[in-house]
């Protein structure tokens, strides 16, 4: 999809604050509110803008620990993969899961209250998913950069 300068300005403004009033977005894009509203609707309809959600602070919600869990399956049959993916979708502490290249099959982003809670999540749920062969955990010590904003080049 081709994004022109106005689309980029609109998206940039919404990435800063998705609750920004259309009039303010229009001011930033140097357009009037009506064409900005139409452009936002088009960007949503075409799937460029997937949705809007608040950015939450996990620590304020009691999740002090951020970890990545690397997982290998013992086989790549459709049943194994489907079973694994269903289990991951059903786990509220898994906030992202990616199939990856390299030595491991999946990179799973997990939040937990503390190390004991991470141990429970890992040993009582992730390791017990049928078809899981290897699990390695990496605990985040400090987050240097984290953003969902996309570059608008």
From TrEMBL:
SUPFAM superfamilies (UniProt xref): Dimeric alpha+beta barrel, Winged helix' DNA-binding domain
Keyword terms of this UniProt record: DNA-binding, Transcription, Transcription regulation
Parts of the chain that traverse the membrane: none
CDD domains: HTH_ARSR
Record-level Gene Ontology MF annotations: sequence-specific DNA binding
Domain HTH asnC-type residues, every copy: 3-64
Keyword hit for Lipid metabolism: no
GO cellular component, one term: cytosol
GO biological process: regulation of DNA-templated transcription; response to amino acid
Annotated Gene3D superfamilies: 3.30.70.920, Winged helix-like DNA-binding domain superfamily/Winged helix DNA-binding domain
Name of this protein: AsnC family transcriptional regulator
Taxon lineage: Bacteria, Pseudomonadati, Pseudomonadota, Alphaproteobacteria, Sphingomonadales
Any matching Pfam family: AsnC_trans_reg
InterPro entries in the cross-refs: ArsR-like_HTH, AsnC-type_HTH_dom, Dimeric_a/b-barrel, Tscrpt_reg_AsnC-like, Tscrpt_reg_AsnC/Lrp_C, WH-like_DNA-bd_sf, WH_DNA-bd_sf
